[in-house]
Design brief:
- The chain is of the alpha+beta class.
- Helices cover about 25% and strands about 35% of the residues.
- The chain has one domain.
- The protein has three helices and six strands, in the order αβαββββαβ.
- Strand 2 and strand 3 form a beta hairpin.
- The longest helix has 10 residues.
- The radius of gyration is 13 Å and the shape is globular.
- The chain starts with a helix and ends in a 9-residue tail after the last strand.
């Protein structure tokens, strides 16, 4: 029910190809499946991408824990699928200066 409300308030996406390029230039807020369930319910966590100067590693996590730690596009997309990652679509063109 809460996820339905969230989708009405914000534009969310699972376009991992686009996300792969976004996380290289900006911090993107994401929601991922937490590693455990409570009483049969999937718990989700809010995290963010952390752009790196070397652009070699993509890290999405929070509180010192990395949910996604990938070194290439295919690995990144596969990990996003496993975590059922959704991200908040930026409201402005982050490629503009």
């Amino acid at each position: 029910m809460k996820e339905d409300l969230l989708s009405h308030l914000y534009v969310m996406s699972k376009d991992y190809f686009s996300l792969y390029h976004l996380v290289k230039v900006s911090r993107i807020i994401c929601i991922v499946n937490y590693d455990t369930k409570i009483d049969g319910y999937q718990i989700r966590d809010v995290c963010q991408s952390s752009p790196r100067k070397d652009n070699e590693i993509i890290d999405i996590g929070c509180r010192g824990y990395s949910y996604i730690w990938a070194t290439n596009k295919d690995d990144f997309i596969e990990q996003c699928k496993k975590k059922d990652l959704e991200y908040f679509v930026p409201t402005k063109d982050i490629y503009e200066n």
